[in-house]
Amino acid sequence: xxxxxxxxxxxxxxxxxxxxxxxxxxxxxxxxxxxxxxxxxxxxxxxxxxxxxxxxxxxxxxxxxxxxxxxxxxxxxxxxxxxxxxxxxxxxxxxxxxxxxxxxxxxxxxxxxxxxxxxxxxxxxxxxxxxxxxxxxxxxxxxxxxxxxxxxxxxxxxxxxxxxxxxxxxxxxxxxxxxxxxxxxxxxxxxxxxxxxxxxxxxxxxxxxxxxxxxxxxxxxxxxxxxxxxxxxxxxxxxxxxxxxxx
Length: 247
Fold this sequence. Notes:
The chain is mainly α. The chain has ten helices and five strands. Strands 3-5-4 form a three-stranded antiparallel sheet. A two-stranded antiparallel sheet has the order 1-2. Strand 4 and strand 5 (78-80) form a beta hairpin. Mean pLDDT is 89; it is low at 1-13.
């Protein structure tokens, strides 16, 4: 066995789960920014590092390409996809549209344990602030996914992926000084309160505004001249749907 120098993970040569190990390793490093946008990935080098044949590496590349994290050329040399303001806009448009819908469906289904976990995560997000961006992002992601926990496995997988991809951008473009997080923390607490009160309409409206502000701020930091027409349309649609639920 060999310990991966980056992740500390033990890789077993020829193991059937080699593809999963390599995929998880590369995916985590790309999303965290450890492997930067535009970086080249060599099948031969990765296979050598993990002490496996190129077959598991090719399959891992295929999974990463399907997710949009890498681009694979004819010679099988791959590169990490560039950061794009258009992608950010699409990601947040999908998040606004789908997470507000999912929250509205989840609120009536929350158990007492779900509501207690939301309250715990509100505190965890606030506490993680002092531990650095990565710790904050981890708890923040957990909170948002808990809000939509009862929407169904397939949709939850998609929303998890979109949220993880926006995290890749936030790590690079969002200020590390905590600006904007104070309001965000208050909204997290308010979202948890509205969920406990079973006010699906008000919770959905607040989540639409919460996500919209984050998306628009991120787009402005990347390209102030970009007009996010798609995201603004998604915001209007989500707010209109929430208002019909809670006029």
